[in-house]
């Protein structure tokens, strides 16, 4: 290996793999609740009591002078989902400061994979709906990966998959979410009011200064964040909503102000920095309440019987979204990584096999939370294409889950056999020996 070679993530430390594995296990619970909420919504929306479902979803409340008189469904999409994006922002900042994105050599592969995994599905969708220009507004619907849903499936079927593959998926999904957030901010925002936007920026700055100055205090006292930071965060969210920018972006902006301690300097309080502490506290609120409620009000689509289902199947939006997620995601991810390794000196970790990356690519085709949000933003209110897009998202997510599970279960069985054939912890220190071995020689992954 020459000094000019760049090698992408190689045998990450056991502590990092343990952290990511723990995160995946927590997300599995949220993924299950997400599925249950979506199924319940579909059943209710297509039952004899469907009018009650839509009456609840469309019921409006709030304070109009502050631009906050919203329907229940809008409160879930604009308000509760900001909690989910706050956690995405925390995880993204942690990856940038102390994780896989802190070095170019370890970040370039998942970043390239995520970018290609967004571009190819969008291109497939555009090609399919090109004959109807009015449908092009939905180009970003198949671009997003649902991090909670995807890691839930991986946690269920991938108990013996290599640590680098798990880290690759998590980093890919986080970068994918960041791209989706940028798309929402840039392409699904209109009529921006500068004064509320300026107030939002000031409030975020105040939020960040208080979080930094009082990080030890907030870490020691659980009530402090609710009393001090929550009101400021809510005010920032309200002003961003009033500005015309989608309010969920506030969650990411606020999360980026939370301090993350470098790995070499651990904080004194609770053994965690404030970002870890907040992630630990707020993840149950996101996974157990915010995201399931959003899914419940976003996934409720009235199919309209056989005739409605036939119309939905023939809609180019449906075909484009399904093709983009199920085909475009794995093709984009594999193509992006392959081109990167061909035209640069970047080399994949020998632990990452192409067949494993294909399984992760299929898994990335699970577009649920963010895809449903973009579907609601893409077409005018009441458009049948919105419902068709939601049906397509759920069908594609199911297909992607089944295809990914079929690949990863086979690979998981193979890794389990290898684990049984070797003594993975010969020295008895509870750390698998693979994480204590020298870096293997340079080589490209094999199938």
Automatic annotation (TrEMBL):
Keywords, alphabetical: Antiport, Cell membrane, Ion transport, Membrane, Sodium, Sodium transport, Transmembrane, Transmembrane helix, Transport
Pro residues: compositionally biased ranges: 438-447
Spans traversing the lipid bilayer: 28-46, 66-92, 104-130, 136-157, 169-188, 194-211, 223-240, 246-263, 284-305, 317-343, 355-379, 391-410
Membrane topology, record value: Multi-pass membrane protein
Cellular localization per UniProt: Cell inner membrane; Cell membrane
KW Transmembrane (keyword) present: yes
One Pfam family cited in the UniProt record for this chain: Na_H_antiport_1
Catalysed transformations (reactions): Na(+)(in) + 2 H(+)(out) = Na(+)(out) + 2 H(+)(in)
Stretch list, region Disordered: 427-447
UniProt keyword annotation of Transmembrane helix present: yes
UniProt similarity note: Belongs to the NhaA Na(+)/H(+) (TC 2.A.33) antiporter family.
Function: Na(+)/H(+) antiporter that extrudes sodium in exchange for external protons.
UniProt name for this protein: Na(+)/H(+) antiporter NhaA
Organism of this sequence: Microbacterium mcarthurae
